[in-house]
Amino acid sequence: ELPPSEFMQVADSTWLVLSVVSNGREPPGCQATGVTKIARSVIAPLAEHHVSVLMLSTYQTDFILVRERDLPVVIHTLAGEFDIYREESGECIPVTCDDVSNGFLKPKPPASPTLHPVQSPQTRFCVLTVAPDTLPAIATMLIDVLFYSHSPPWDAATGSQDLDSISFFSFSLIEGYISIVMDAETQKRFPSDLLLTSSTGELWRMVRIGGQPLGFDECGIVAQIAEPLAAADISAYYISTFNFDHALVPEEGIAEVIQLLQQRQESGR
């Protein structure tokens, strides 16, 4: 319904949403949450089968977006590990490989994925939720932050932002559940009694993936971040955007995360 505009870019693919529900088969002792919880069972196999994904972690759960044309490959890849259902009119209907065999081609082995640079600004972030009935009380503040707050100045000479401090605000409303990621300074502008977070109130640091916009055709970007963190049992919330990918990790673990990703970078050379 949005009117065509020279200011709006639209990716040419249609995407479908996968929601992963625990099947009780996680390795014993695994405490990681977010994208690292599904790194081995979902993210890695899809990367191996050359499926490009967008990732959206929220306060409540994680969603994987895959291109509609890749659905046969996705189902054939995951059917051995998961029971797969499609949602129709609010009902979950089982899906088998036979349902999508038409057009399925065994993918060619993918080339080694590009190892993208990562950057970690000093900004500290909060992962929050809001009760839907309290949303009107913060609507004006949300509009101000989303549309009128200024980002750090863009350096025309280098073509990049100063990443010592990054402006990042994510708001999602999915089936009535609200999830917000904002920096700790922005959080102070909101009524503290309306923003809900974990009982520990932990803060998160960000790793931004990519030195320039990533595009949508490459596969393995999420896997190259999620797999090392999963091996180290480090929680991570992962948010893909139109230009870059972002992983949020617990503040106290940022040094270990940077070291792991630097080792990945060096081993890939």
TrEMBL record:
* Cytosolic arginine sensor for mTORC1 subunit 1/2 ACT-like domain mapped to chain residues: 116-199
Q: Where is it chiefly localized? A: cytoplasm
InterPro entries documented for this protein: ACT-like_dom_sf, CASTOR1_ACT-like, CASTOR_ACT_dom, CASTOR_fam, CASTOR_mTORC1
| GO cellular component terms, A-Z | cytosol
Q: Where does this polypeptide localize?
A: Cytoplasm, Cytosol
- GO BP annotations listed: negative regulation of TORC1 signaling
Any one GO MF annotation of this record: identical protein binding
Gene3D superfamilies named in the record:
VC0802-like
CASTOR ACT domain spans which residues? 11-78, 201-262
Keyword annotations for this protein, in alphabetical order, are:
Cytoplasm, Phosphoprotein, Ubl conjugation
Tell me the Pfam families matching this sequence: ACT_7, CASTOR1_ACT-like
The record's subunit annotation is: Forms homodimers and heterodimers with CASTOR2. Interacts with the GATOR2 complex which is composed of MIOS, SEC13, SEH1L, WDR24 and WDR59; the interaction is negatively regulated by arginine. Interacts with TM4SF5; the interaction is positively regulated by leucine and is negatively regulated by arginine.
Record-linked PANTHER family: CHROMOSOME 1, WHOLE GENOME SHOTGUN SEQUENCE (PTHR31131), CYTOSOLIC ARGININE SENSOR FOR MTORC1 SUBUNIT 1 (PTHR31131:SF3)
Tell me its family: Belongs to the GATS family.
Summary of the function given for this chain in its UniProt record: Functions as an intracellular arginine sensor within the amino acid-sensing branch of the TORC1 signaling pathway. As a homodimer or a heterodimer with CASTOR2, binds and inhibits the GATOR subcomplex GATOR2 and thereby mTORC1. Binding of arginine to CASTOR1 allosterically disrupts the interaction of CASTOR1-containing dimers with GATOR2 which can in turn activate mTORC1 and the TORC1 signaling pathway.
**What is the protein name stated in its UniProt record?**
Cytosolic arginine sensor for mTORC1 subunit 1
Organism expressing this protein natively = Sitta europaea (Eurasian nuthatch)
Gene symbol here is Castor1
